[in-house]
Specification:
By secondary structure, this protein is an all-beta fold. The protein is built from one helix and 37 strands. It has four domains: about 120 residues, TM1070-like (Hypothetical Protein Tm1070, Chain: A, Sandwich), CATH 2.60.290; about 90 residues, TM1070-like (Hypothetical Protein Tm1070, Chain: A), CATH 2.60.290.11; about 110 residues, Hypothetical Protein Tm1070, Chain: A, CATH 2.60.290.11; about 120 residues, Sandwich (Hypothetical Protein Tm1070, Chain: A). The strands form nine sheets. It has a five-stranded mixed beta sheet. A five-stranded antiparallel beta sheet has the order 22-21-24-19-27, with no helix packed on it. The protein has a five-stranded antiparallel beta sheet with strand order 31-30-33-28-37, with no helix packed on it. The chain is globular and about 55 Å long. It starts with a strand and ends with a strand.
Length: about 475
């Protein structure tokens, strides 16, 4: 039986605007491409196939991806590694394999573009009838967004979109027909019914036989390196009453986090956010959040945080929990992190995790160490009681042999992080690591979640010159 992971791709090699199914989409300017990384979650060799579907529902390419070694990964930069895919393609894809696999997708300007712009989303293994988006915008102080919605059914379906403004009121609805396996882009920047300075949330609905996969991107002007932020995140269809966040930052090398908590239930609710910085906890209570509405603080603004957090700085974690929980009070959470000062213009968004999604093993499909200037960091969070004893296993890549690093997490300090160039098997202080592969974290004694980020680090690897703009991207690890 084949394992499937649906990968939503938004690909273009056209500048400024795109034309698809009779609609003009005002995407951020420039030529956009994608990279797809597939991780083999098994110890056996995996044979991979990728089917690319156009926005009209036709099969654009049936691509033989070859094999991936056990616990390894493989990356396809579409402009050069998938020659059969026509220039100007924009659409979606389905990845299949004879082993269990996972995937991530980078949506970016072509490699070497300055300023850089890139965002990362995760392949969807379990599409759902209803998918929620925590953060959508139109003309919001220079910010706009779009959401690519994939129909994973084998016939066409009408997808209904509902937009909620910041007060929780329905601002607009729209419906579009989406062919089998293909995607439609709901472009908020061209939706005049949202008005100006719109910042809110959204819901996308298919039906039981046509579950959806959704990726949203939001972005600013891109006129310069300081305005080149491009954030990607997955829409979510399943929520809970307690959600875990492995990384938040406050005044951390000029980086700040922001939260977006969306109520996907049918009753109004409030939440408590518990921040953990260096083993000290701080609690914040939200305002009332109505059904469909989203709420969240920007941690760079002291007025949006508890007074007890004045002077707090660094990297930590958080837990968001519904007050007076019941089956009708359900939330999802996404986390932003950006730098608005030095070097301005970098930003990421990732999805927080439910307890049911945690496990003792996490796979990160793409971790880099001094790879054409890019390096990664890994952040792990323990969400159950007890001491976690863990191993981070780096797969073999190029001249680097497979190696492992061991670490522990306790109830007092439930987080761990590693900057990939500092991992034990990398070249000590060297500029020749050139690692771009998978990392598997395995723990005993507790359940864990995690994320991996990636950015261009001229200070670590100066071989390729400096690069401005948004080279910063983050993806949630794949629990198995």
């Amino acid at each position: 039986m084949k394992k499937l992971v649906r990968v939503l791709l938004v690909l273009s090699v056209l500048a400024v605007a795109l034309m698809a199914t009779g609609n003009v989409f005002a995407f951020p300017g420039g030529t956009w491409v994608s990279g797809v990384t597939v991780a083999n979650l098994s110890s056996s060799v995996a044979t991979v196939n990728i089917k690319f579907y156009s926005s009209t529902g036709s099969l654009a390419l049936d691509f033989n991806g070859g094999t991936i070694a056990g616990n390894g990964s493989k990356t396809w930069y579409l402009p050069s590694h998938v020659p059969g895919l026509a220039s100007g393609f924009i659409g979606s894809a389905v990845v299949s394999s004879d082993q269990e696999v996972a995937a991530i997708v980078n949506t970016q300007l072509p490699s070497g573009t300055d300023p850089a712009r890139v965002g990362t989303s995760t392949g969807v293994a379990a599409p759902m009838e209803k998918i929620y988006a925590t953060q959508v915008m139109r003309d919001y102080y220079g910010w706009n967004s779009y959401c690519a919605v994939q129909n994973t059914g084998d016939t066409s379906v009408t997808v209904n979109a509902t937009y909620y403004n910041s007060a929780g009121t329905v601002q607009d609805t729209e419906s579009k027909n989406v062919p089998a396996y293909s995607s439609y882009i709901f472009d908020q920047s061209t939706n005049a019914d949202l008005g100006t300075k719109f910042s809110g949330s959204a819901k996308f609905q298919g039906d039981a036989t046509h579950p959806l996969a959704v990726v949203c991107n939001f972005y600013n002007s891109g006129d310069s390196g300081s305005s080149a932020q491009f954030h990607s995140y997955n829409g979510l269809g399943e929520g809970g009453t307690k959600v875990y966040i492995p990384r938040v930052v406050k005044d951390y090398y000029s980086y700040q986090s922001g939260l977006k908590v969306q109520n996907i239930g049918t009753e109004s609710l409030t939440v408590n956010v518990t921040y953990n910085f260096g083993g000290t906890q701080y609690t914040q209570t939200s305002t009332n959040i109505g059904p469909g509405q989203s709420w969240g603080p920007y941690m760079g603004d002291a007025s949006q945080l508890p007074g007890s957090m004045a002077g707090v700085s660094g990297s930590g974690s958080a837990i968001v929990e519904v007050n007076s929980p019941n089956a009708n009070k359900v939330i999802i959470v996404t986390v932003n992190e950006d730098n608005r000062t030095n070097p301005a213009g970098r930003g990421v968004t990732y999805e927080a995790s439910l307890a049911a999604e945690a496990s003792d093993t996490i796979v990160f499909p793409q971790v880099a160490s001094e790879y054409y200037g890019y390096s990664s960091g890994i952040q792990i969070m323990k969400i159950s009681a007890g001491t976690a004893n863990c191993t981070a296993a780096y797969s073999a890549m190029g001249s680097i042999a497979a190696f492992s690093d061991n670490f522990s997490m306790t109830d007092a300090n439930p987080g761990w992080s590693q900057f990939a160039p500092n991992a034990s098997g990398m070249t000590a202080g060297g500029a020749n690591d050139n690692y771009n592969g998978a990392v598997t974290v395995t723990c005993t004694g507790a359940q864990v979640i995690g994320i991996a980020n990636l950015s261009y680090r001229y200070d670590v690897d100066p071989r390729y010159g400096n690069l401005t703009g948004d080279s910063f991207t983050t993806a949630r690890g794949i629990n198995k």
